[in-house]
Amino acid sequence: MTKVLIVDDEMLMRKGLCTLIDWEKLDCQVIGAVENGLLAQQSVLAQPPDIIISDIKMPVVDGLALAKWVNETHPHIRMILLTAFADFTYAKQAIQYGVTDYVTKTGDMGEIITAVSRCKEQLQRQSALRDDRRKQAGAVLKSILDGSLHTEQEINRQAALVGLSAAAYQLAVVDTGAARPQKQQAHSMRKQAETMFSSFLPREKLYLISNGPSELYLVFLDIPEQQVHKFCMDSIAMFQKLTAHAIYFGVSSSVRSLCGLPAALMQARQALSERFYDKRELHTFHPSEPAKTPTYAAQFAALSRSMKSGDQDACCAILSDLAASQRQTHQPQAQVKETARMILHLCRSTLESYGLDLDALDIDETEWKRDLECTQFHQICTQMQQTLICAVCQCIAQMLTEGGNLLADVQAYIDGHFCEPITLKDLAAAVHVSAGYLSRYFRQKTGKTIMDTITRKKIAFAKQLIEEGNLKIFEIAQRVGFEDTTYFSHVFKKYAGVSAKTYQEQIQRRRSNCVSDK
């Protein structure tokens, strides 16, 4: 709805303008009616209207002086001047001051209504033009930030074309979805944030640039740093109230030119990364020395020894010291996560030395890595590693209690004898336990039966021999411990999906294709 301010020193005229025109029909709202230009100026500063309808001859500050002030300070406001005389001297001055219309009071209200309609048309054209220029300015800012616009000469040229100019710029990186909700929800939360930000500052002072479903860049133009800080704090409180979610800000220092925005973006990102150690919602950039990349060689060696002996307390103490070192030196998030992946590898290799893998602990390695990548806080990252290490220590401690490295001995025996016609009884005798106990133990630890494990190794080796191409199918069957070639083909198809003969033909065709390609 278009906001209208009425200015006239005659009370009857003010009342008439307020009541005799159907403002609602014009989609307008009268937000004030004052008696002189000085009061009008105060009203404009408190609540800017879209249109001012003002008498010319008034005490204190007259209509022409008001028009001159509006033209200089609020050029987007449209003005209609009223006078009791058709004086062309007034009309000439009114044109100089950007007045939209000049109406005599002796006319009927229809002239004023027509003048208001013309003002609204101008406002609509101005709004469309401003929106277009704003989109163009936003595109220029996005190009500067993504590096596609990088030379000072080109940046300045493009900025001049869209009227993008300020004495100081400041940038904030905003994460509206740190809790990592579903993509659709993250998009919705980002939209709510955009609407909220736009209500806090004038459009010409703030540009919003989307970067993914949950991240925004805010570019502030000529806003004091204290006001930017208040804007961020108010946004944090309002977003929490609206969505019951946290929103995180990383804010740069001020820069004096558009060419400084890429550096400001790096500062803002560095500031936002501080939430990894400190869960506060607002972080501002402070220069600091770059952290050295640690090796943690001694900690890893001690962790490996403690895990292999199943010493959970010692492992947790080592991890605690490592995490404290990361916090103290504020290691970058990427380095901390790389260390976590190294600990995952150490846990896997320790289990493998006992013939186990992470599946035995009901841990999905791919899912663990994905959760680690999404983690935004150091505390959660440390908890993930601690849970993993404790699970490995408990598993190994249980194995050692049950009689040494039994599983590793079983795996080693299978690896050395799987091509022989070994039975469960033969294997149990080799590792000095009963066949029944060994069967239950192996399945409990690996989720597979012993004979299935042996057969899989036989078929894997048979595939390797077929690929080498030096033996016939019946020779390969005998090599991997099958006396009956037909039974071998049946088992091969069960595990490989195709018969041994078909697999051999596939390999031969593949080789022929490679030769013809050359």
Please describe what this structure looks like.
The chain has helices spanning 11-19, 37-46, 63-73, 88-96, 109-146, 152-162, 183-200, 225-243, 261-272, 297-308, 312-329, 333-352, 365-374, 378-401, 406-417, 424-431, 435-446, 450-468, 473-479, 485-496, 500-517, and strands at 2-7, 28-34, 51-55, 78-83, 101-104, 169-175, 206-210, 215-221, 248-251, 282-284. It has 518 residues and is an alpha/beta fold. Helix 7 packs across helix 8 (225-243) and helix 10 (297-308) runs antiparallel to helix 11. The longest helix has 38 residues, at 109-146. It is elongated.
- The low-confidence runs, each spanning 5 or more residues with pLDDT under 50, are none
Terminal Cα span: 75 Å
Q: In total, how many beta strands? A: 10
Number of helical segments? 21
Category by helix and strand content: alpha/beta
As a percent range, the share of strand residues is 5-15%
Largest sheet: 5 strands, parallel
What is the topology, as strand order, of the major beta sheet?
A: 2-1-3-4-5
Helix content: 55-70%
Globular, elongated, flat, extended or rod-shaped: what is the shape? elongated
Name some characteristics of this structure.
single chain, alpha/beta, 5-stranded mixed sheet, elongated
Short description:
By secondary structure, this protein is of the alpha/beta class. The protein has 21 helices and 10 strands. The mean pLDDT is 87.
SSE arrangement:
Elements: E1 2-7, H1 11-19, E2 28-34, H2 37-46, E3 51-55, H3 63-73, E4 78-83, H4 88-96, E5 101-104, H5 109-146, H6 152-162, E6 169-175, H7 183-200, E7 206-210, E8 215-221, H8 225-243, E9 248-251, H9 261-272, E10 282-284, H10 297-308, H11 312-329, H12 333-352, H13 365-374, H14 378-401, H15 406-417, H16 424-431, H17 435-446, H18 450-468, H19 473-479, H20 485-496, H21 500-517
Parallel strand pairs: 1-2, 1-3, 3-4, 4-5, 9-10
Antiparallel strand pairs: 6-8, 6-9, 7-8
